[in-house]
Amino acid sequence: MHHDGSYKMKNLVPPNFKLERFFAKHEFNVQHLLCCSDAEAIKMSDLLEKADDECRELWDNLALSYTDSCGHPLLRKEIAEMYPTITVHDVLVVVPQEGIYIAMKAFMDTFINNQQKPHVVVTYPGYQSLYGNLESDGADVTYWKAQYDNKSGWYFDIRHLQQVIKPHTKLLVVNFPHNPTGWVPSLQQWNEVVNICKEKKIFLFSDEMYRLSNNDNSEALPSACSLYENAVTLSGLSKTFALPGLRIGWLCTQNKAMMLKFQSFKDWLTICMSSPSEILAIIALRNQPWILQHTMGIIHSNLEQLDTFFTIYSEFFEWHRPPASTISFIKLKPKLLGKANGSVSDWCERLAQDAGLLLLPSSVYDYDDSFVRIGFGRKGMKETLSVLERYILK
Q: Cβ(240)–Cβ(212) under 8 Å?
């Protein structure tokens, strides 16, 4: 409200989602995708073959009606069993992107009563909605930036996190395993992050969409929602579980007041989930070992091929094998970029146009124009690398 009584409406159109606009332009217009973050999708017929008697009956007698707004009770039970200390009442089933939107709106609603502009710390680079929603709503956002070492690759420095937290910091947003670098903290480092939030009474939002994808024989980190009552975990079936088409994710938290806000915000969005998707999701979570074997088999095979390829072409690429996830953020060397005026973005555009192969430039993350995101969760790596090889050698 202005002094003259007039009201200036806030810009209601969100900023361009650069990553999604990039995919909208290219994803279905190229033959080879080497940047996707999902795993090779499981066929519905194969998933249905894994249904137990209860799920088979649910599927065969399924009515395409509205569903429980919080999620199917059996689905919430399966989700809750993944997290110690979490009950079915601590789970809200959402579309993954919707889950981020709901959580960030609920956080800002919680902080808005404080006259001081809420300060938030977010891992960066990252998926744009993890910080974009907060920035659009007026939060004071500071980036906890990933560090890059030419010899060892990517990492996040806990000391840097401690430096960027302020006395009035209200929220820490993290994403581990990290998109786009694939980095994951050690258990000790993870406990340090959680303890910082506990000691300073900071809410913690943990994007764990790539959880259970560790490829170095290490155990998956305990989920944030199991470690801290003011932590919120986002996860789902789109990445490691190889079922992005189901559009099933979830928010988990022990904070009852925050969960009520999540439920209220969801009423303004999807209201409830797709009934077929929920039954298929129950089947999936009851067959986790089978799905993880599917995904990790592809990841291990692809990483071996990438190790070999980048060793041969180390003059063009700087490769550091990530410990988890289905993606990595690799540096392109000047020798490769000479024909594109040193620009990774231009080089990726030419690669898509001339070779029909898509890599994701770091510019879509509003990050230094020196890196590309590479995905290794899908089949067809041998053929795709041969296309890339021919292009860089021509």
A: yes
* Helical axes 53-60 vs 275-285, angle rounded to 10°: 170
CB 336 within 8 A of CB 347: yes
Tell me the sheet residues that pair with 207.
175, 234
pLDDT digits (tens, 9 = 90+) for 25-73: 877 889 999 999 999 999 999 999 999 999 999 999 999 999 999 999 9
Contact 258, 232 (CB under 8 A): yes
Closest residue by Cα to residue 247 from 271, 198, 281: 281
CA 251/CA 263 separation, integer angstroms: 10
User: Is the dihedral angle over the CA atoms 117, 120, 126, 131 positive or is it negative?
Assistant: negative
Residue 221 CA from chain centroid, whole number = 15
What tokens appear for 161 in the block? 């996190």
- Greatest C-alpha distance within the chain: 68
Scored b (16 or more CB within 10 A) or e, 28-53 reads eeeebbbbbbbbbebeeeebeeebee
Residues written for the chain: 394
Mean pLDDT of all residues belonging to the chain: 94
Contacting residues for 142 by C-beta, under 8 A, at least 6 apart? 119, 120, 121, 122, 164, 166
Q: What is the pTM of this model?
A: 0.94
Residue 118: cis peptide before it, omega within 30 degrees of 0:
no
